[in-house]
């Protein structure tokens, strides 16, 4: 079996999930604690990939990252090529596609925090940054880990966005999901089964981790 698509998918998923963790922390914090009435607009934008067909998102990402798009033109001038059909282009498109899977678990964790702890921190003289690093993040780590794992798994199994933005270039944009499709088209069901079983095993492991975290039975701050 050719392991190149698997390694490429793992590399893409790991890159996207790490970057999304850094993006999701401040974004989820703002959405959870802001009192701005219009925040539903940003919440809708963040959640849009949940209901938007991947091909639609992939099409618009291809337009933006292509040689005629704003980002594509910038890359063309600085790098000598656009970002369409490149690994970097896959990363950028995947960040948009998996964004809600990183933000929503964190936002739920932030919203479930006991606000009295935050008030006590302010009374004791801690500023917002110190409160965020010393209280909010430690108490919300299950949400952070859930977002990390879910965004990893969601990116790992991408098909529509990857196909639209990256095409099918072996060693560059040919991920495991694209490889499965190609094998089925070539009637290579044995190879497709091997690749599919790998993704199935990863997906099951991810769900097991997420459900065990959501139970929070062993959490030190879990109220009995």
Secondary structure elements and pairings:
Blueprint (H helix, E strand, L loop, with lengths): L3 H30 L5 H13 L2 H12 L4 H10 L7 H25 L3 H9 L4 H12 L1 H16 L3 H7 L9 H10 L3 H27 L9
Helix pairs in contact: 1-5, 1-8, 1-10, 2-5, 3-5, 3-9, 5-8, 5-9, 6-7, 8-11, 10-11
Description:
By secondary structure, the chain is mostly helical. It has one domain (4-215): MetI-like fold, CATH 1.10.3720.10. Helices cover 76% and strands 0% of the residues. The chain has eleven helices and no strands. It has helices at residues 4-33, 39-51, 54-65, 70-79, 87-111, 115-123, 128-139, 141-156, 160-166, 176-185, 189-215. Residues 217-224 have low confidence and may be disordered.
Order of helices and strands: HHHHHHHHHHH
Question: Which percent band covers the strand fraction?
Answer: under 5%
Give the tally of structural domains. Answer: 1
CATH topology heading: MetI-like fold
What's the CATH H-level superfamily name? MetI-like
Number of helices: 11
* Gap from first CA to last CA: 49 Å
Number of strands: 0
Radius of gyration: 20 Å
CATH C-level name = Mainly Alpha
Shape: globular
Question: What is the averaged pLDDT score?
Answer: 87
- Helix fraction, binned, reads over 70%
Q: Unreliable stretches, pLDDT < 50, 5 or more residues?
A: 217-224
Structural class: mainly alpha
CATH-scheme architecture: Orthogonal Bundle
Which features characterize this protein?
MetI-like fold, 0% strand, 76% helix, mainly alpha
Can I get a quick summary?
With 224 residues, this protein is mostly helical. It is built from eleven helices and no strands.
């Amino acid at each position: 079996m050719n392991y190149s698509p698997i390694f490429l998918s793992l590399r893409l998923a790991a890159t996207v999930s790490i970057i999304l963790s850094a993006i999701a922390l401040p974004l989820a914090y703002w959405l959870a604690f802001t009192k701005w009435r219009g925040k539903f607009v940003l919440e809708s934008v963040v959640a849009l990939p949940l209901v938007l067909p991947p091909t639609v998102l992939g099409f618009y990402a291809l337009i933006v990252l292509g040689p005629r798009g704003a980002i594509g033109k910038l890359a063309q001038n600085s790098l000598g090529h656009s970002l369409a059909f490149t690994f970097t282009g896959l990363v950028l498109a995947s960040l948009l596609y998996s964004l809600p899977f990183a933000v929503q678990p964190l936002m739920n964790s932030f919203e479930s925090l006991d606000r009295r702890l935050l008030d006590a921190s302010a009374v004791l003289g801690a500023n917002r940054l110190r409160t965020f690093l010393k209280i909010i993040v430690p108490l919300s780590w299950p949400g952070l880990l859930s977002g990390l794992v879910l965004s990893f798994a969601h990116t790992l199994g991408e098909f529509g966005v990857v196909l639209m933005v990256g095409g099918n270039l072996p060693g560059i944009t040919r991920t495991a999901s694209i490889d499965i499709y190609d094998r089925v088209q070539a009637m290579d069901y044995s190879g497709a089964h091997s690749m599919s079983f790998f993704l199935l095993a990863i997906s099951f492991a991810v769900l097991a981790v997420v459900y065990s975290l959501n139970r929070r039975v062993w959490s030190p701050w879990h109220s009995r």
